[in-house]
Design brief:
The chain has three helices and 39 strands. With 506 residues, it is mainly beta.
Length: 506
């Protein structure tokens, strides 16, 4: 009974009901932890707005659409939840569902989906639809091998958030022309957002913002990756009807192609190795803002945004990077510090790695994107600190170009970034083994914290926590049991802080 303790205590404290679903349960059961239900549809019927449905681990075979109506909506302070049980990762397998039938249709608001995988839907894996389909959060879920887009938002669905989700290898037989990873398109509403999401190997596009029936809506993407779209899972090309773009940012067709606006904002997004374009305007005449994005190896173009926008709309592209592919922007674009502008010249030497093999690696325990060297800037690249401050976090004297901020800074950048009244000197020796000395100077006596972190942001050593006098200080660090690699020393004194890079050699 120990496993039941966490959810029982949690939901008792929140005064909400919890239902449990297990492949070994029965729909004749009451849905308790000890006597779980067998199917999610039965749990949805039994649940009231604000309740939570826990899905136990294992494979749940489902054959028909699950609709969650507006009457099941939660509230901002009491969300309705559909969660994988903590520590378990259920698979919802819709592979036996009829072609053309969606897995989930969510018409409700204030729902929270998290921690499960969904495969093989007869149409969309998840459709959020209607103006009541709003303020939902989908976190750490994957949608794959569906027979249309993994996720679609439509008919006014608005203000939904996707966090750390994947959508991949979705394809719609027999024509193979519509299946995207994430599709906030057609008659979608405004205010939908995607953070830390990946979309790859979809037969149409990674993200599709194509419009028909709506205009003047806004979608935000931050720290999202897409690649390999335009082909089927086995690598074959389904034909020209499968577009194969990374981020398709809107546009219409036929009689409305010159009038529909989908305002797209992309921060630190990556598109590579797609059959067509990485960042595609697709006739969109709305505003588009691209900050610190990277395009690499997309076959038609890394960036193509050349069509004149509607009156009052703007294209802004800054701190972006393009390599092994073209960047085609109209003369109306507001550009600054992009890699295709002087004084930059991009070569393979600017990157630690051009191998994308780890892009689809498992996510970290918290659901965030995996660490990978691909497209990260190499020490000595002039793209490091080559950007301008756009309000996004950065290290060093200025932002780097592209989607990834480098984990090291030049000595010049360190000096410029070090605040007055605090001086952190490069450790010596560096690289080092087995010991190094970290030097710093204080203008006045201060309470000092000196800690060492790995590149995942995890603290590995706490060297100093206490008062230190004014003047030069020295602290020795002799790591034990740590792997060779790059570490960061973070010094804080009062309200001031500084960081330097340490290299442990083996």
């Amino acid at each position: 009974m120990k496993k039941a303790l966490f959810p029982l205590l949690l939901f008792a404290s929140l005064a909400r009901a919890a239902l449990y679903v297990s492949p070994s349960g029965s729909d004749l059961n009451p849905g308790t932890f000890a006597q779980p239900l067998r199917t999610i549809p039965k749990a949805v019927i039994k649940a009231a707005g604000g309740d939570t449905i826990f899905i136990r681990g294992g494979t749940h075979e489902l054959t028909a659409n699950i609709t969650i109506g507006a009457d099941k909506s939660g509230t901002e302070s009491r969300r309705s939840c559909l969660w994988g049980y903590p520590g378990e990762r259920p698979l919802l397998d819709f592979s036996k569902e009829a072609l053309g039938s969606r897995a989930f249709t969510l018409k409700a608001s204030w729902w929270y989906f998290r921690d499960f995988d969904l495969k093989g839907a007869g149409d969309n894996g998840l459709q959020i639809t209607g103006t009541t389909g709003a303020f939902n959060t989908i976190e750490n879920c994957s949608f794959f091998e569906c027979r249309d887009s993994g996720v679609q938002l439509s008919t006014g669905a608005h203000d939904n958030r996707f966090i750390n989700c994947d959508s991949y290898h979705n394809a719609d037989p027999p024509d193979y022309g519509d299946a995207d990873g994430f599709a906030p398109k057609l008659d979608v509403g405004s205010g939908n957002s995607f953070y830390g999401c990946r979309s790859w190997g979809n037969c149409d596009d990674g993200w599709d913002g194509y419009m028909r029936g709506a205009t003047n809506v806004t979608t935000l993407l931050e720290n999202c990756w897409t690649w390999g779209n335009g082909w089927l899972k086995d690598g074959s090309d389904p034909g020209s009807q499968a577009n194969g773009n990374g981020f398709k940012m809107g546009g219409g067709d036929n009689s409305n192609r010159d009038m529909l606006m989908h305002h797209f904002i992309l921060n630190r997004c990556l598109a590579f190795n797609c059959k067509a374009k990485g960042f595609d305007q697709n006739n969109n005449v709305g505003s588009m803002t691209l900050y610190n994005c990277t395009g690499f190896g997309n076959l038609t173009a890394n960036y193509r945004i050349t069509k004149t926008l509607a009156a009052g709309q703007n294209l802004t592209v800054k701190n972006c990077l393009s390599f092994n592919g073209s960047a085609e922007l109209g003369a109306f674009a507001f550009q600054a510090n992009n890699s295709w502008l002087p004084p930059f010249t991009v070569t393979t030497a600017d990157f630690i790695s051009l191998d994308p093999a780890l892009a689809a690696a498992p996510r970290k325990a918290d659901g965030s994107l995996p660490d990978l060297p691909f497209m990260h800037l190499a020490l000595g690249s002039d793209l490091i600190d080559g950007g301008i401050d756009l309000g996004l976090p950065f290290l060093g004297a200025a932002p780097d170009l592209g989607a990834f901020e480098s984990d090291f800074r030049s000595e010049v950048a360190q000096r410029e970034a070090t605040p007055a009244g605090l001086r952190l000197v490069q450790n010596y020796p560096n690289p080092f083994n087995p010991e190094t000395t970290i030097c710093y100077a204080l203008l006045k006596p201060e309470w000092v914290s000196l800690r060492i972190f790995n590149l995942r942001g995890q603290m590995v050593a706490d060297l100093v926590e206490g008062w230190r006098p004014a003047g030069e200080q020295r602290e020795r660090w002799r790591p034990q049991g740590l792997a060779a690699g790059i570490y960061m020393a973070r010094l804080q004194a009062g309200d001031l802080n500084a960081t330097t890079r340490l290299v442990l050699a083996k």
